[in-house]
Design brief:
The chain has about 375 residues and is an alpha+beta fold. About 60% of the residues lie in helices and about 10% in strands.
Length: about 375
């Protein structure tokens, strides 16, 4: 809402000198407040954790690049690297009355899918934990395991769900009467419920428990993302090698294309001359048809687009944020161009190069499917 006031030098409606002066004062006040807010944020950064500081710095980079809707959480902070979707992270924290252990597994997936496994009495933390993980990752199937155990040196108690026990007894009594059985309800049936008696401090505060759980989840996410970026760095090297090989293949095709086209024209002239006896080789109709066919078999446009796609792929590796699906799309387009080159050319050497290019593109596609 403040963007028009911050970036428009003139007031939207001029109502004399007093109106313009008032607008100028408001504009200057907003600018001063904005700078003070940034300064306050820079002071606050010194008091937050290392992971939060990197996240905040990466967030500023994303906002400056106009991609504020992405969810940055970088292990390095200065630059968000390529991130693999396959990783694992474990984090642990010590609470006042219980300790938490969080394990996060991430594998390939078309979109972000989060599955959280935790004990029933921790379900109140399911939504904030999901939001925390969704704010750090972009894509992949993520499985989260949350476990806790009471802290033996900080007091252990037992919380009994009396209301649940009463409801269970009442339900079993009603079931016994409806079925016509005699006798009393066996207490062992009620006591067999695992959620009837929960080990832990009954006075534990929910907010403190969430702080402990969030700390464990943050540690797990930091380790998960560190592994993602390490694997992404290795994939980057593989991408560079594959793209270099692909560029060499394209260069070889471009070198062979003119001579292959000339040989095709000569063969075409010979076939037409044999089929149309009595027509001169330089007959205008023959030359026109040869020129039309030669133009249809020209692969210069395909090689140009192929090089453009390779350049775009390299640029993506320097981009901020998620790029895996865009990489997959570019590989698909490169495959399309290579298939067109193979269909147009009947030169044996070029056909062999097309097969090599398809092999490299298949490797590129498999690696791209592992990028967030």
């Amino acid at each position: 809402p403040l963007r028009p006031l911050l970036f428009h030098p003139e007031p939207p409606v001029t109502e004399g000198l007093q109106g313009r002066c008032f607008f100028r004062c408001i504009h200057c006040l907003i600018v001063i407040i904005s700078f003070l807010s940034v300064a306050n944020c820079s002071v606050h950064i010194r008091t937050i954790s290392w992971a939060q500081r990197n996240t905040f710095r990466a967030r500023l980079i994303m906002l400056a690049s106009g991609r504020g809707n992405d969810h940055p959480r970088s292990h390095l902070g200065e630059h968000i690297l390529l991130r693999s979707m396959t990783a694992f992270g474990r984090g642990q924290s010590l609470g006042e009355s219980e300790d938490f252990l969080v394990e996060i597994h991430s594998v390939n997936g078309r979109r972000l899918e989060i599955v959280i496994n935790m004990e029933g009495h921790l379900t109140e933390f399911h939504p904030p934990l999901r939001s925390l993980i969704a704010g750090a990752l972009w894509r992949g199937r993520v499985t989260v395991f949350v476990s806790r155990q009471p802290s033996s040196d900080r007091g252990v108690g037992f919380r009994v769900n009396t209301e649940l026990a009463k409801e269970l007894k009442r339900a079993y009594e009603e079931l016994r009467k409806n079925l016509g059985y005699e006798g009393e309800v066996d207490f062992s049936i009620i006591a067999s419920r695992s959620d009837l008696i929960v080990q832990g401090n009954p006075a534990a505060d929910s907010e403190k428990r969430w702080i402990a759980l969030k700390s464990a989840a943050d540690n797990a996410l930091d380790r998960l993302i560190a592994m993602k970026e390490t694997e992404g760095h290795n994939l980057r090297s593989a991408f560079d090698n594959l793209l270099n090989d692909l560029e060499k293949i394209v260069a070889s095709i471009e070198d062979l294309a003119p001579s292959a086209l000339v040989r095709y024209e000569e063969r075409l002239k010979g076939r037409i001359s044999d089929a149309a006896a009595g027509l001169a080789d330089n007959d205008e109709r023959i030359l026109r048809e040869i020129a039309i066919l030669a133009d249809k078999l020209d692969i210069s446009e395909e090689t140009t687009r192929l090089r453009s796609h390779i350049d775009q792929f390299r640029a993506l590796m320097e981009d901020l944020g998620p790029c895996g699906r865009t990489m997959e799309f570019l590989v698909q387009e490169m495959n399309r161009e290579v298939n067109t080159i193979g269909a147009k050319s009947d030169d044996l050497t070029i056909s062999k190069l097309v097969v090599r290019a398809k092999t490299e593109l298949e490797k590129l596609r498999e690696q791209s499917q592992n990028i967030e």
